[in-house]
Amino acid sequence: MQRTALLVGLLAGCWAGAQAPNLGQLDVVEQTVPDGPVAFVEGTPVSREDYLFLYQTNLAMAAMQIGPKNVNDEVRVRAGVRCLAELAQREILWHEARRRGIKVGDAEVSEEYQKRLKMLQEQMTEEGKPSPGEADILARSGLSRGQTMDNVRKVLLVSRVSEAIAKEKGAQVSDAEVEQFYRERPELFERPGGLHLKQIYTRPKPPVNDASWEAARKAMEKAVARIQTGESFEAVVKSMSDAPDRERGGDMGPIPAEQLPPFYVEAAGKLQAGGMSDILKSEHGYHVIKLVSKEAAGTVTLAEARERIREVLLENKQEEILEAFCQPILQDAERVKIYLKLDRKLDEILSKEAQKAKKDGTSGAAAPKAKESPEPKKQSAPKNSSEAKKKR
Fold this sequence. Notes:
Blueprint: H1 5-12, E1 39-41, E2 44-46, H2 48-66, H3 73-99, H4 106-124, H5 134-141, H6 145-168, H7 175-184, E3 190-191, E4 194-202, H8 210-228, H9 233-240, E5 251-256, H10 262-268, E6 280-281, E7 286-295, E8 298-299, H11 302-330, E9 336-338, H12 342-360
Antiparallel strand pairs: 1-2, 1-9, 3-8, 4-5, 4-7, 6-7
């Protein structure tokens, strides 16, 4: 892939990070993707590269939720259908923004560009290395600064017209709807116990051998000595830690205990707020942690969750409104031409599963679904009377 996180982060506006992991050499969706555009929307091509990167990113997220072993062909095709719909809908809304004469000022585009660039620099920083510069990120993306600014403008225009359409349809969320969601989904508001830590980390430098391990140990001992003689923990971290959070003084932020290495949790259990651990050794190097605070497990109250629930429910309503707005265009074979036949592939997969289930005398077992969370709904596949079957 020539496109990297910049394309997804700046153009698609979704999760951005390192190259999505390869979840299978013979991917059922990738085999189906044409060499040219996957679709034309109002005369604008949806490129193969943009589609594949969004698809691989979504597949990686699914693998994190349900486990790589559960990413079967059905999961892949359904992810592919969602990505195709998302890109097609984005193009429709961009054309609608232009039709309405919606404008976004250069200053706003520049501000958004800098914000997303900073986010990407943080996400793409490798352990023990300086953050990549703007030129490096642009080089990896294969896009010029001007092209990237145009993409940012497009994202902002889509956002602006989406808000306008939703407002015209009167999208609102009542207090009663918020309270009903809170009552019906109590599992979403369970707050696990967490730890707020800061860390120092030293790792053996290549080539990794006894000497490099000894050097890493001595570096950590010097760091501890500096803190014990009055230098601040944060200053020492910034001067010598090998962890990505060094520029934040080693601040890891509040993290649920189950997401931390067990030896961190064990060491933190012996500390009071402000306390610092002994030197800890792992397979990766040497660590020292400082406990900022402990957070007991509990339940998020309705008062605490109210505004976030309202935001999520409003996003859901807005997605439904936008889907209804776009569907007539998606069904128009003259305005939207789809060249990626995923509905047909999904039919084949479901038919094979049904036949196998019938033969085995079972009802068939679908792959585990990702854990549900109060997030906006995904769009259904683009429908086209001449090129796609009826949406399932």
